[in-house]
Amino acid sequence: MNELNKTLCEAETIMIAGHVRPDGDCIGACVALQRYIKRNYPKKEVFVYIETVPEVFEFLDENKEIFSNETNDKKYDVFIALDCSSPDRLGDAQKAFYNAKSTMCIDHHISNRYYAGINVVNADASSTCEVLYELITDEEKISDLFSKQNIGDGIDRLSGEKKLGFEIIRALYIGIIFDTGVFRFSNTSKRTMDIAGELVDTGIPFWKYIDECFLQRTYTQTQLLGRTLLASMRVMDGKCIVATITRRMMEFYEAKNEDIEGIVDQLRITQGVEVAILLHEIGDQEYKVSLRSNDYIDVSKIASFFGGGGHVKAAGFTMRGSAHDVVNNITGHIESQMLNKNN
Q1: Cα distance between residue 66 and residue 51, in whole Å
Q2: What does the radius of gyration of the chain's CA atoms come to, in whole angstroms?
Q3: Shared domain check, 140 and 111
Q4: How many domains does the structure of the chain reveal?
Q5: Sheet holding 314-320, edge to edge
């Protein structure tokens, strides 16, 4: 019995939470774990806290029965943190984490601080959903969760354990394609592709999830993307590209935080660019910074220096100051890594 199932067996009340401003991997992992517990441990009490569910992933909890955006004062037997590298990233759920009788963290961030009582962290995995897949299939084959068939439009007709199995598989696949950019990012390994193949082999309409969760954009998202790209600028002899999304822009387009998703990756693929920097203004002289690199710059080191975290080629943090000062601070670290590479 692996650490996850041993932990679940020993607990009667379980709280699950992901990081603030949750993304597809975080949402997918929370759904998959909640459904796994409901399927295999139906008598357990499970509470899932998520700050907010991006609209594109709302269909994963279409009956509004999984997520809550409000915490409570209950002392849980175990608190399981998903896709979260440090306790401060749990937001309002941080208090419940410290109040729980035992804690567990399942994650894939290289910057993870191993802050829980039990830490299942694999920095080589593409996503937390990939780590969770390994834990789930350590006990049973994925085909046991849901028999292979062409689901088509018959999803609504599923019931009972079969539907729970389908929801687990769907959530895991969506989490993996989100964090790998549909297998475009360098964190995609042979194992990632093998897992994705096993999930696809169950008969899920994977093409639909790629279109609806990753490629499809709302008109607002398209407008915001265009405006941001138009106002971007290259620095450091074109090795770095910078763009800023202000609060005024967000208000003008009536955009939500999730509408920013994917913009930094569009900046990253600019020819000749090594690092993309996206600043999102969230307060007076306060910015949420997203960093992406293409080849040799380790942006996780930069993010960690400023109190954030992430991966070698995708990381982020929050910084106070003018946009000019923020960029100057970041480019100084990029330049240092470039010089070290050339020496």
Answers
A1: 13
A2: 20
A3: yes
A4: 2
A5: 233-235, 240-245, 275-283, 286-293, 314-320, 309-310
Contact indicator for 276, 292 with CB cutoff of 8 Å = yes
Among 186, 215, 244, the domain boundary falls at 215
Q: Report pLDDT digits (tens) over 99-139.
A: 999 999 999 998 899 999 999 999 999 999 999 999 999 87
Instruction: Kindly state whether residues 53 and 184 are assigned to the same domain.
Output: yes
Angstrom distance (rounded) from CA 327 to CA 279: 9
Q: Do 147 and 293 fall within a single domain? A: no
Q: What is the pLDDT of residues 32-59, one digit of tens each?
A: 999 999 999 999 999 999 999 998 999 9
Task: Provide the 8-state DSSP code for 212.
Answer: I
Q: Which long-range contacts (CB under 8 A, 24 or more apart) does 88-92 make?
A: 89/19, 89/20, 89/309, 90/17, 90/19, 90/20, 91/19, 91/20, 91/51, 92/49, 92/51
- Tell me the C-alpha distance between 94 and 89, whole Å: 8
